Input
Amino acid sequence: MTQKQQRYNANKLHKRLRRQVGTAIADYNMIEEGDRVMVCLSGGKDSYALLDILMNLQAHAPVKFELVAVNLDQKQPGFPEQVLPEYLTNIGLPFRIVEQDTYSVVKRVIEEGKTTCSLCSRLRRGVLYRVAGELGATKIALGHHRDDILETLFLNMFYGGKLKAMPPKLVSDDGQHIVIRPLAYCKEKDLAAYAAIADFPIIPCNLCGAQKNLQRQAVKEMMQQWDKQFPGRLETMFRSLQNIKPSHLADTLHYDFYNLKTQSEPVVDGDTAFDEEIFEPTIEELAIPATKISTIN
Output
């Protein structure tokens, strides 16, 4: 591939991600006039890409908003504490590095060999909420992308018995903070390519020495296989999260099945139980041999 082609592809990728982030922000009203957005920067590819894209949008957006980057130094052995301050200083963005030894807490509480991610995440969340209050941040931006959202959906279905994912926007449990996920429409592989082109100084996420979340890893591998074998399937699954029919599920708390009665007027979300569902193939699936399409449903 020539340098000209590489530049063209890089520019195309940048425009696509910027458009997807802008669309997600608009769809969920994530950022408003005068907001101060605290971007949680871990040093991984996703949070670097989030910050970079938000800075780009900030320069061209019709609404004015501030950005401040925050990193939590959890005192993991070998953490390169100079990397993020140097990077953020070089790009001229206000930032705060918060030092809190949650690593020792996790190692003391969690049995050796067990996954530490859950407790670590809760401790980190509490610290970041506190810092958001201190900084006067009106929004907290996290780097979760489309694949994270779908993985969480399947984890909750397979292991938690819940139909639940990561929402693009939510209010914290204490009601004090708005959390946003501007990368909700972005593919992980696009973000990985973007980070490689930008040459971000990536900090590895395994410094704590914890085992991988094996359940999440299994779901990730399942989705990656689907993406290779059936292009377009992940996009369709994500759209299902935006097209929910409570009357055709089974949750009595979200739909009043108990008091259903006949009525004289047509029902908007009525019964299709006797009709065979027709699933139109996506554009990507139309290019797949018929023998493979027959196994999709």
Summary: Residues 3-27 form the longest helix (25 residues). The longest strand covers residues 66-73. Residues 288-297 have pLDDT under 50 and may be disordered. The radius of gyration is 22 Å.
